[in-house]
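Weekly puzzle thread! Below is a chain. First person to post its structure in token form gets bragging rights.
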Amino acid sequence: MKEIRATMDPSESSQMIAWLDEEVRKSKSQMADLRDLVVATGPTGTVYLRDVADVRDTVVKRTQVNRYRGTDSIGVLVTKQATANAISVSEGVKKELTTLRQVLPADVKLDVITDTSDYTRSSIRGVEDELIQAIILVGIVLFFFLHTFRSTIIVLLAIPTSLIATFIVMQFLGFTLNLMSLLALTLTIGILVDDSIVVLENIFRHLEKGENPVQAAINGRSEIGLAAIAITLVDVVVFAPVGLLSGITGGFFREFGITVVAATLFSLLVSFTLTPMLASRWLRTPNPLDRSVLARVGNAWERGYQAVARAYRGLLRVSLRVRWLVVVAGLATFAGAIALVATNVVGSEFVPESDQGTFTVVAEMPPGTSLEVTDRAVSQVEQRLLAWPEVVSTFASIGVSTDTRPAQSRFGRVVVRFVPARERKATINQLAERARSLNEGIPDLSVRIQLPSMAGASAGAVQYQVRGESKDEIARLAREVQAALESVPGTRDIRNSDA
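Winning reply:
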């Protein structure tokens, strides 16, 4: 190689490499031509490829196997950048796949094995539906309590007005309409109409006193202003700290908290401006002689409401006569609620389990197992999964890494995708429980199931690290920890990364 470097002009090296690559492609099937390939020419003579390399016709040892639905394939993993939007990246990749399908041979198929943004899309669609349903239900409830379409529309207009103003704040802060921000908007639907209802009810009370609509709007809003501010600030002081959280939790809930605070403050502004203005234009003094259908429905509802109010007043009078019993019952209820959490009767976790329609079967053979033997074992698991009616596809990889352990021929992984939850009777957890017996009848094979988490981790719900300076001592202690954990009821899939 030193002789080659000595005969090569650095300015011509790129041209020589390009020429060499071109000639190799043209004569790669002819071994003799390859051996006699000239790689350099200089004052000391000609240097052939056989002088600097061992040219043999052989096959590279296979170190990994990939199959899609039982057919040999190649997998490509696309990972988004930390600041990228998952749905935008997914749509961009699928657009490129459409272009690639047009230029690939007819017998080559491109398919998306798993798309983590599908769950995000489904969740967002669900929250959007709930947002629309919440607005409709709020409108129905408001109509029954306010009795007129005009009053209902005045209050309902506070919702889109506050939401549009909140969108401006979200855009300014770089927020998107994701799962957390949509949950925040859904939560605030009731909050958005609170202030307007309080203001409108007081304006209506002034109308019943005989004031004209304009004067009633001014007096009604002024009278109730302090109460409306107090109601709003209570919500703000609850949710503002949520938007200021740090760490992983803060990353989840920052948009949620700030979105709720912004929408709540805008609802207060709307109740002080838009609601009184519309009330002064649209509201009229109620006519007690009105016999229309809507009036009769409103009167019937009002009679029922007054009956409930009378019952409540009776209960309140009884409660005031036995104050000590009410206080004791309240304290006992509070203490009981705390006890339920403290004694783990009500469990706790960082994020709830979710049915994302996929899980991964991690297969493991004893140390030293060849790729071919592992492949045969994983192939049986794959065929058993494909026989399940709920399974859409499987993607098997053999000779891969698992968790923190490097790639080895004894490891395999099968990514399983199922039909949507609404199209199957079994939950993802029930399917995972069934999958834990996939190794039955397959010698030396152990399997465990990795379920995706909303937090992004799938290595295990609980992880322990044993640290020290002596590798042998660490390995011994790790085995002891593993044995202790296996004795804990409810644990499963316990594994030792040193094994």
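Puzzle host: Confirmed. Bonus trivia for everyone else. The longest strand covers residues 391-398.
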